[in-house]
UniProtKB/TrEMBL annotation:
Listed transmembrane segments: 12-29, 35-53
Top-level taxonomic group: Eukaryota
Keyword Transmembrane part of the UniProt annotation: yes
Keywords, ordered alphabetically: Membrane, Transmembrane, Transmembrane helix
Name of the molecule in the record: Hypothetical 23.7 kDa protein in MDH1-VMA5 intergenic region, putative
Provenance organism: Brugia malayi (Filarial nematode worm)
Keyword Transmembrane helix: yes
Length: 54
């Protein structure tokens, strides 16, 4: 019985770790994507301003 309880606890622990890792990677990718889009937007704005001023 004790062995069963320990194994189930480990299963839950692994499940939590897996979910945490998945969420972390997902958010990480999204943050990078938004960062790159923001930088691209800023670069485009700088180029447009430069073209408009000349």
């Amino acid at each position: 019985l004790l062995y069963q309880i320990i194994t189930t606890q480990y299963m839950y622990l692994y499940l939590y770790l897996y979910l945490y890792l998945y969420l972390y990677l997902y958010l990480h990718l999204y943050l990078h994507l938004y960062l790159y889009l923001y930088l691209l937007f800023v670069c485009i704005n700088i180029i447009l301003i430069d073209l408009l001023t000349n």
